[in-house]
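User: Hey, quick favor. My workstation is busy. Could you predict this chain's structure for me?
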Amino acid sequence: MNKLRGTALLALCLLLGIPGVAWANAGVPMIVLVLPALGLSIIPIIAIEALYLGKTLALRFSRAAKTATIANLVSTIVGVPLTWTVLVLIQMIAGGGGAFGLDSTLGKVLSVTLQAAWLIPYESDFHWMIPVAGLVLLVPFFFASWWSESYVSKKMLHEYPAHNVTVAVRNANIVTYVLLAFWPVGFWILNKPAGQ
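Assistant: No problem, here it is.
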């Protein structure tokens, strides 16, 4: 436990000690946009996934709802933030702490993929960068959610074949993550400059 605490403290110090992250105009740590969206979406997500698990695994709705609730809370509170932290660390290690520039197509692509977890401060382009980075982040967050929710669900539904639970959780997450894509799309629609 002390080793884990030490590693987390080191990671935090590294993030705060990197000048590109420590500046006042440090850009957008996308987790501050992702977690509120997930928080607002958690009830419909749980309901959809509970209905899907109940139908697919022939569970009573109360058991499916309890499983989906606990699995999604673990995913939202632990899985997504942990994945975001790992993505930020990868971004910093891979050189994503510096600006690639938006003058070229490659620069634009790198700015919203490699730097999706923590966008560099191109404020005048945030209207398109934030939604694209949000869509990019849905991919690793999907896998983190699938893994963490499968783990929890297999523990809670131990009498069911593990493979069946894993597939049901994956498919339920595909449905809810497609719906979560409406958040970045909606952000883009509401924030696009006039005339676009």
